[in-house]
Amino acid sequence: MTAQFSKLRTSRHNRMLLGVCGGLAEFTGISAGWFRLFFLIAAIPGGVPGLGLYFVLWLIMPKG
Asked: What average pLDDT score do residues 32-56 get?
């Protein structure tokens, strides 16, 4: 049995804005919709927690 490891990077194919949620989904195997929902909920109280984390991840993650 071989393990399939993917690197954490932004997604080229599964993207709506910058590919962060798609990249997290490809890395973890969880649907990108769950990550999008998380960032949406985190953005509700003023926007800073969700949007700030999203853009920090976009800056840190290598481009896919």
From this structure: 87
